[in-house]
Amino acid sequence: MVSTRSAGKISYKRKRVDDGSSSEVDSVNGEPQNSDSEDETSQTDLQGHLSAVQTCVTQLVTQVKSLQERNRKLKGDLERLHHREESIQSKQGKRGGKSNTDLKNQVDSLRVIIQGLKRLQQKEVKKEANELTGGEMADSDDDVVYQMRKLSRRFQDLMLAAVLEEHEECRICLEEMKLEKCSRCSMSDLSSAMADCELVHLTPNDRWDELLDVAKRAGELDHLGGVSSSEEENEEDFVDDHRYKLDILRPHE
């Protein structure tokens, strides 16, 4: 230690080594300075912060590694499930099983069949309704009049149609004639063209059945669109056929 004297004051300067570092302490009038203690405190705080940051980084690295390992395991499980599904589908295909595409196509075809059956069912229902009501249903007076006109024309055509009796023979060549067949008679007029001949489609029994059907349909239309017989009888100008016949047959006094 070296001591000097200057201007009536004593100044001490010493040099010491503390843990490999040197520091100077100046004292004036015997009072020391605290710069070294403040530096040590700041260094201690900095080391604490660095240690905390290092700890956080270590924890984050550990978490990242754990997540990477978990992700790797999940990918492996997903690949195994995918391979298992492919193997199951391939086995089903080898055994004759149907894939999802085949099942979808089958469902679509079944839907088309169901729609066709529904349309067919609706047609059958309409057909049965027409049969029960004697043909087309008349919803208004105009429809009734139209249907009656059709039946009247049908009745006229049936009455004017030519009929062929069973086992009827030609009056000239005495050959048996058949329905819906036209053959040239060898003894008749050869100058007439074949196109002028008229085919016969009905026998008397067939025409009678057709006439009965026309009468039945006309009665149904009259019941649907016209007034009932009881209402007609209640009219003022109605003539009672039964009473009229009795009056005719009764002797005059």
UniProtKB/TrEMBL annotation:
Positions with biased composition (Basic and acidic residues): 74-88
Source species of the chain: Serpula lacrymans var. lacrymans (strain S7.3) (Dry rot fungus)
Region feature Disordered, mapped onto this chain: 1-46, 74-102
UniProt-recorded name of the protein: Uncharacterized protein
Domain of life of the source: Eukaryota
